[in-house]
Write a structure and sequence with these properties.
- 38% of the residues lie in helices and 16% in strands.
- By secondary structure, the protein is of the alpha+beta class.
- It has one domain: Glutaredoxin (3-Layer(aba) Sandwich).
- The chain has a four-stranded mixed beta sheet with strand order 4-3-5-6, with helices on both faces. Strands 1-2 form a two-stranded antiparallel sheet.
- The protein is globular, with a radius of gyration of 18 Å.
């Protein structure tokens, strides 16, 4: 019974993968990060176009995650490379394990008090699924969807995604910093 179910599931997945891409998918792939806008943690419009010609590191974050310590390294990364054109953008999300349950005010207070965060942050945002923010729906088609909190997308000065890094890649690791330095 299990083998029959596995074979059926495999066949369904293969059929899904063989479906042609929709026109929307093609349009999404031709966009750039600068096409999207968020709302900041302070409630203000935050169009990514304001960072045109900058290198972006977009990270979905959470305050109660085993990777929350990465906030400290993200702040250090921001301070090290901001003058050269890097913008770190934190995107708080409650999508993984309910690890960002707080309000925008609570998130802001937590980040400032515990990590001295002053890089741009968005309001709490859905990053996976059909209700995901349009930026995340777009980037997921190009570089895959986030699998957990502190997933990182590196975007070049042209607004195109260059690489994605899983949560386990520390912000100050050679892997990430060398990729940033190549783009700066």
């Amino acid at each position: 019974m299990f083998l029959k179910w596995t074979a059926t599931l495999t066949a369904c997945v293969l059929l899904f993968l063989m479906l042609p891409a929709s026109a929307d998918s093609a349009d999404e792939k031709s966009q750039s990060a600068y096409s999207f806008s968020f709302t900041s943690l302070h409630g203000e419009d935050m169009p990514l176009a304001q960072y045109n010609d900058k290198v972006l590191l977009v990270v979905n974050t959470a305050s109660r995650c085993g990777f929350t310590h990465q906030y400290d390294a993200l702040q250090n990364l921001w301070e090290m490379y901001e003058a050269q054109g890097l913008v770190v953008i934190g995107v708080p999300s409650n999508d993984f394990g309910g690890q960002e349950p707080g309000s925008e005010q609570e998130i802001k207070k937590f980040c400032e008090a515990n990590f001295g965060i002053n890089f741009p942050m968005t309001e709490k945002t859905i990053v996976i699924g059909t209700n995901a923010h349009p930026f995340y729906r777009w980037i997921s088609t190009v570089k895959g969807r986030p699998r957990w909190n502190f997933h990182k997308y590196l975007i070049g000065r042209d607004g195109q995604p260059v690489k994605a890094f899983p949560s386990s890649v520390e912000p100050l690791s050679e892997t990430l910093t060398s990729s940033i330095e190549e783009l700066l």
